[in-house]
Amino acid sequence: VQLLQGQLWSFSVSYPPMSDDQARTWFSRLSQLLGRYGTFYFGDPRCKRPRGAWAGTPIVNGGTQTGQTLAISGFTVGTDICGGDYFQLSTGSSSRLHMVTQDAVADGSGNITADIWPRLRESPTNSGAIVTATPQGVFRLATSNVSKTFEPFRNGISLEIVEAL
User: Fold this and answer.
1) Backbone angles phi, psi at 21, to 5 degrees
2) Low-confidence residues of the chain, pLDDT below 70?
3) What φ, ψ does residue 48 adopt, rounded to 5°?
């Protein structure tokens, strides 16, 4: 078995029933994307905060990193991060959403080498900030279709989204 390079996030998103006015607002905003052309910021809405402490001021430790691990410095000694914690590298249109895949504890110098998913596609900036509060990446619709369910006075919306690379 060969480890392939192509790793990316995709989500199936279903919003609960909403009023006609709310549904119209959603469809208006989704239409502004022009199908798969436009992009938007998205993060897992259930995971706005990490389970681990992430104490200190974690930053990227080295600007030439690639692969499935990320060296991070600036932690308080003994701080833990947990598998399943999301974090964001970079900001704006360069935002990338990642997840820690294994628990780790900061060493005596406040460093952690975190196993992550997806792999780094480009080397992060040395001393670049790591965002753990409501982390997001840049996404687009996976198809040009958005599904809407009709019920009297209640509408639901479902869509498939994929990381914009």
Assistant:
1) -60, -45
2) 3-4, 149-153
3) -85, -15
